[in-house]
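in:
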């Protein structure tokens, strides 16, 4: 009987296993996870769950009994630590599991602040796993002054939660502005204004020199020499793909586990999906760090493991909730050379490369997001001038 092993018990791994069963695979499936809990949702961790508005049980994608019902063996709290492609085995704990096909869905790890600049002090936290949030919960509620290092989406979402819990919050961003890698300056300006209205201080062009304190953090020293007092520090300086297990197995893994359009690695029996996978899109290899990509790619790779032979073509979308503001993003804005802004029920920023629509950021504007997402999925031709015209009925663009 064929044995498929999935290394990485996150959203992509769960989607992959569920799709294998849904598509009729009746062989053995083993899902291996480094954490000691079954697959769960990550986006609510730093929002609803941290705020106490979402129960722990609601985080889990499926109850543990579902895996038994689907005859999926869970190996939790036992990270895989060695793939032998020649023998077609993977080590899990003290066991050596043989596989016929293997999928790597190991996801991401939060980029830590180095110990030499104070990253190992008590009171310094990253946000990625359920354990991270459980550890942060009580200290954050007790903290009067919080410094957030990093002005990306994770840092800004953490700042919003800390402020809602009553802390004085300062965000420090080493780059020229917040959201520098992921959004236009217009989107960043609106999110900056929202944080300012809620009393958060954002310090851009302010690089961290080190965290201060003896044993526990008590401040953040900037390269300018200024020291910001801090009872607690949240580090949001990015994420790294968990691809060491692939590299050690001799697979191509530079900035992610490199796969072809089907999700297959350089070894024909090994696949990858989700946040850790580096796959071809728009003439380059990219990684997409999103729930949608994890679910969709996990399902697509499962079908290809069963012989579908269908190229994975993503339809990227993302979101970020900060206070009562809902930012929805459709598409990828890479390579844009023109931005068009609309003010409808909310505000939206439309990214174009020449006459080609690349992405849309919709801020409290569900209609703009929905239309942009559907236009991108259809590959529809729409001009910057049409979008810029306030008299253009966005929904009418879908009927052409």
């Amino acid at each position: 009987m064929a044995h498929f092993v999935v290394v990485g018990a996150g959203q992509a791994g769960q989607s992959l296993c569920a799709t294998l069963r849904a598509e009729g695979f009746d062989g053995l499936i083993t899902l291996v996870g480094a954490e000691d809990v079954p697959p769960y949702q990550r986006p609510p961790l730093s929002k609803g769950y941290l705020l106490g508005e979402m129960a722990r049980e609601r985080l889990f994608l499926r109850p543990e009994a579902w895996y038994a019902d689907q005859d999926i063996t869970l190996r939790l709290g036992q990270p895989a630590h060695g793939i032998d492609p020649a023998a077609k085995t993977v080590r899990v704990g003290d066991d050596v599991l043989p596989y016929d096909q293997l999928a790597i869905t190991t996801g991401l790890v939060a980029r830590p602040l180095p110990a030499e600049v104070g990253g190992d002090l008590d009171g310094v936290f990253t946000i990625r796993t359920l354990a991270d949030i459980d550890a942060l919960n009580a200290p954050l509620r007790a903290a009067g002054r919080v410094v957030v290092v990093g002005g990306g989406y994770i840092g800004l979402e953490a700042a919003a939660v800390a402020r809602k819990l009553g802390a004085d919050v300062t965000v420090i961003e080493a780059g020229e502005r917040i959201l520098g890698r992921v959004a236009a300056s217009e989107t960043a300006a609106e999110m900056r204004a929202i944080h300012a209205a809620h009393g958060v201080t954002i310090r851009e062009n302010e690089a961290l020199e080190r965290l201060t304190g003896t044993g526990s953090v008590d401040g953040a020293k900037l390269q300018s020499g200024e020291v910001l007092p801090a009872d607690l520090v949240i580090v949001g300086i990015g994420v790294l793909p968990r691809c060491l297990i692939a590299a050690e197995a001799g697979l191509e893994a530079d900035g992610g586990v490199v796969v072809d359009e089907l999700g297959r690695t350089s070894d024909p029996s090994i696949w990858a999906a989700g946040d850790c996978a580096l796959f071809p899109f728009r003439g380059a290899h990219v990684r997409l760090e999103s729930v949608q990509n994890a679910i969709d790619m996990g399902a697509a790779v499962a079908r290809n493991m069963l012989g579908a032979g269908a190229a994975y073509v993503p339809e990227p979308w993302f979101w970020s909730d900060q206070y009562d503001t809902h930012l929805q993003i459709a598409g990828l804005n890479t390579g844009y050379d023109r931005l068009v802004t609309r003010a409808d029920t909310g505000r939206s920023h439309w990214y174009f490369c020449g006459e080609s629509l690349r992405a849309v950021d919709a801020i409290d504007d569900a209609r703009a997001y929905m239309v942009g997402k559907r236009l991108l999925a259809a590959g529809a031709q729409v001009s910057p001038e049409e979008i810029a015209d306030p008299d253009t009925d966005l929904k009418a663009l879908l009927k052409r």
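note: The chain has three domains: 3-109+239-305, 112-235, 324-397.
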